[in-house]
Write a structure and sequence with these properties.
The protein is of the alpha+beta class. The protein has 17 helices and 22 strands. It has helices at about 125-130, 130-135, 140-160, 200-210, 250-265, 280-285, 305, 310-320, 335-350, 375-385, 400-420, 460-465, 500-510, 515-530, 540-550, 580-585, 590-595; strands at about 25-35, 40-45, 50-55, 75-85, 100-110, 165, 185, 195, 215-225, 235-245, 275-280, 300, 325-330, 355-360, 365, 395-400, 430-435, 440, 445-450, 480-485, 490-495, 535-540. The strands form five sheets. Strands 6-9-10-22-21-20-17-11 form an eight-stranded mixed beta sheet, sandwiched between helices. A five-stranded mixed barrel has the order 1-2-3-5-4. Helix 13 (about 500-510) packs antiparallel against helix 14 (about 515-530).
């Protein structure tokens, strides 16, 4: 009889327990380690569920292959489960109370000596990515993919239970170059024309609402040709959701329920109440719109306090109506000038012209490079107003509001990690609402959509948009909302514009002419005129979601076959050149620059 064909696996290696004692099992997996104790060979056999110790007798004809097996060989084993003697129990293994006494063993596949062992944590990342299939044998990475699976199964269960229908939308679609660059796909049967891989199914899911599908979701693949970061890939997955006859509260309620159910299923915890703050409150208190609430430090407004102080840097900023803000950081009162210089350099990376610091010694005495401009009493007043405490320091930035916030937010993030000031005992969630509808694009001298051009305004601001009051565009609020967790944007969405005249006003505000609108969105604008329900939606970043659930900082850890920071696959060597004949078929000729870069 042959294993696999006739003899089937009865258990996963990691599932064998004392309850199986004295029963016969058939296991199949990889050799994790091999130990030759003279008369017997001990093998830790591994599969995705874990590993178990197998005892082989090389002298027995049925298990004589034991003398030849090496790490990463694939074996099939038939044997009897035995309880280990009391002194031989391995408490570090779930299967540590048992072992398998093999009666038959077959090598299903021999293995070359691998370039690294899966449990070697010192292997460089490029080597791991080149041999990703070996790297994925690591139990930690396999567990990440299992968490991903479980989370998405819960998503489907919850949304289906709430009346949502899963609908697939096209991968080959129309290019609408807004925001990130599209990945383009040439058409062989329509030479000179191109599809684009979708950055998001945005217009498609809205059209499903026009079509009357009412509640849609999709585990959607999306593509953006942009520079990468640790938490971003050129292709990624969204939990894409759209609902009809709803307002912002309805969409947020469904997605809050989804978050609760995911965390309960995967981590076994109750999220409790999720707080809400507006975009402007988030910026004022934390300096960014996705603050990490596991850090308790907050920014304080010092503008009124330092107004007319005689320190020209502060006075000029206050007179212009810009921001002077302070961040109190405990425990850095002993920092040297050199250390504060490094913090100043970080602030300058965000556009700040400088950084003022006030530090407190253990005795409470204050020192600062600007001490000569303030009385001791005033310096103490500034220090206390920012929340400073003995042995700590206050960091002050005076600049345009956005610059001040960005600089102090970066310092808050940097120092909280450096000082270990993050409470990692639980995940902290936050809804951020009431985003501005527009942001001003200084490079192009026009208004741009903060989210996308289909976002609805707050009810009180519709008339400002429709009447084209450009001088008030900066004050228009959007019916937009983001769900933040541990300083990461888990997902975001908005109520959509469902009235053609409001959508046209939005295009006008963005400076899109009639021909441009027709070219990019003609089909969509026409659809709005056939009876469109009020609707709104939300999209979760699946890779980021699983990254947080797994407690890792690298998004590549939760993707089976990720790309590098240069959007390349080291394993398959994609992207790669293609044959000239293929290019001719789709009507493409490479430029001289492309030839040089090949």
């Amino acid at each position: 009889m042959a294993f696999v064909k006739d003899v089937k696996r009865t258990h996963y290696c990691g599932d064998v327990r004392p309850a199986h004692a004295e029963s016969e099992v058939v296991l199949m997996g990889w050799v994790d380690t091999r130990r030759d104790h003279g008369g017997l060979v001990f093998v830790d056999l591994r599969d995705r569920q874990g590993l178990v110790q197998v005892v082989l007798d090389p002298a027995s004809p049925a298990t004589q292959v034991a003398k030849d097996v090496r790490n990463e060989f694939v074996l099939a084993v038939r044997g009897t489960v035995k309880l280990r003697p009391e002194g031989m129990i391995n408490k570090n293994l779930d299967t540590g109370e048992v072992e398998i006494i093999a009666t038959e063993c077959e090598v299903l596949s021999a293995a070359k000596t691998p370039p690294f062992q899966p449990d070697d944590e010192k292997v460089s990342e490029p080597l791991r990515l080149k041999y990703r299939y070996l790297d994925l044998r690591r139990p930690r990475l396999q567990q990440h993919l299992i968490v991903r699976h479980n989370a998405l199964m819960k998503v489907r269960q919850v949304l289906a239970g709430k009346g949502f229908i899963e609908v697939e939308t096209p991968i080959l679609y129309k290019s609408t170059p807004e925001g990130a660059r599209d990945y383009l796909v040439p058409s062989r049967v329509n030479l000179g024309r191109f599809y684009a891989l979708p950055q998001s199914p945005q217009t498609l899911k809205q059209l499903l609402m026009v079509a009357g599908m009412d509640r849609y979701f999709q585990i959607a693949r999306c593509f953006r040709d942009e520079d990468l970061r640790a938490d971003r890939q050129p292709e990624f997955t969204q939990i894409d959701i759209e609902m009809s006859f709803v307002d912002a509260e309805d969409v947020m309620a469904v997605n809050e329920l989804l978050a609760r159910e995911i965390w309960k299923a995967v981590k076994g915890v109750d999220l409790g109440e999720i707080p809400r703050i507006s975009y402007y409150e988030a910026m004022n208190r934390y300096g960014c719109d996705k603050p990490d609430l596991r850090v308790s430090w907050e920014l304080k407004d010092l503008g009124e306090l330092v107004k007319g102080s005689g320190f020209q840097v502060f006075d000029d900023v206050v007179d212009r109506g810009d921001a002077v803000k302070g961040l109190a950081v405990p425990g850095i009162g002993n920092y040297s000038r050199g250390q504060f210089d490094k913090l100043t350099a970080l602030a300058k990376q965000m556009g700040a012209k400088g950084l003022v610091w006030i530090k407190s010694g253990e005795g409470g005495e204050l020192t600062s490079p600007v001490s000569k401009f303030f009385s001791a009493e005033k310096l103490q007043e500034i220090f206390k107003a920012a929340g400073g405490e003995t042995g700590g320091a206050v960091l002050v930035v005076a600049d345009q509001f956005d610059v001040t916030c960005a600089a102090l937010s970066l310092l808050r993030t940097h120092l909280s990690h450096e000082l270990g000031a993050i409470d990692t005992s639980r995940d902290r969630f936050l809804w951020v609402t009431d985003f501005p509808l527009f942001e001003y694009d200084t490079d192009n001298g026009r208004w741009a959509a903060k989210h996308h051009p289909f976002t609805m305004t707050a009810d009180d601001d519709v008339s400002v948009l429709v009447n084209g009051k450009e001088n008030e565009f900066g004050k228009i609020r959007a019916k937009a909302y983001d769900l933040v967790c541990n300083g990461h944007e888990l997902g975001g969405g908005s109520v959509r514009i469902h009235q053609p005249e409001v959508q046209q006003a939005m295009f006008n505000a963005l400076g899109l002419g009639e021909e441009e609108v027709k070219l990019k969105f003609g089909y969509f604008v026409e659809a709005l005129g056939y009876g469109t329900p009020p609707h709104g939606g939300f999209a979760w970043g699946v890779d980021r979601l699983v990254m947080i659930l797994c407690g890792t900082d690298a998004i590549r850890d939760v993707i089976a076959f990720p790309k590098t920071a240069k959007a390349t696959c080291l394993m398959s060597e994609a992207p790669s050149p293609v044959a000239l004949e293929q290019l001719i078929e789709v009507g493409i000729k490479l430029s001289g620059t492309a030839d040089k870069e090949k």
